[in-house]
Amino acid sequence: MDLLDAARQVRENAHAPYSGFKVGAALRAESGRIFVGCNVENAAYPEGTCAEAGAIAAMVAGGETGLSEIVVVAAGEVPVSPCGGCRQKLAEFGTGDLRIIMATLDGKRRDTTLAALLPGAFGAADMGTA
Ligand code: THU
After folding, report:
1. Which of 21, 122, 4 has the alpha carbon at shortest distance from 77?
2. DSSP string spanning 28-44?
3. Ligand 1 pocket, mutate which of 15, 19, 22, 23 (most atoms under 8 A from CB)
4. Hey, whose CA ends up nearest to atom 6 of ligand 1?
5. H helix intervals, 46-121
6. Which ligand 1 atom sits nearest the alpha carbon of residue 16?
7. Residue 51 alpha carbon, nearest atom of ligand 1
8. Which residues line ligand 1 (CB under 6 A)?
């Protein structure tokens, strides 16, 4: 199964009763393994989590910290763009050339990179610890 199929499939499990906006994410770790996540909303709204965050958490729980590609899928007219917080989360595990593919259910795609979405990202190097 490729990343797009994996993202579309996990999107169906999204828990989005408040926004009604289901999102699926599938990432490929540097090893080649695929990890998936969906958005999980909460009645206490700020406690909800994004699909990308779920996929990243699954990757780390699976023992991997290197990210090479991610696909994010949602319904809508235009491909969904990772939120600012998720861009920062991606920057923790991916380099600027991390490939980010956004797709709609009907097949529209936008391919970009983390560097394009988060120029000047803050990272460990900014603290002098990397
Ligand atoms: N959402 C994601 O899961 N990923 C994104 O990149 C953008 C937004 C979710 C959060 C919330 O559950 C719903 O979409 C509406 O914002």
Report:
1. 21
2. EETTS-EEEEE-B--SS
3. 23
4. 82
5. 51-61, 84-93, 114-117
6. 12
7. 3
8. 16, 19, 21, 23, 39, 41, 48, 50-52, 72, 80, 82-83, 86
Query: Alpha-carbon distance 96 to 19, whole Å?
Result: 31
Residue numbers annotated as active site: 52
All domains of the chain, ordered by start, with CATH? Answer: 3-120 (3.40.140.10)
- State residue 130's pLDDT score: 60
Comparing CA positions, the residue from 93, 70, 84, 72 lying closest to residue 119 is: 84
- The closest of 103, 100, 124 to 113, measured between CA atoms, is 100
pTM more than 0.85: yes
Q: Which two tokens stand for residue 65?
A: 């910290």
pLDDT tens for residues 49-81? 999 999 999 999 999 999 999 999 999 999 999
How confident is the model at residue 14, as a pLDDT? 98
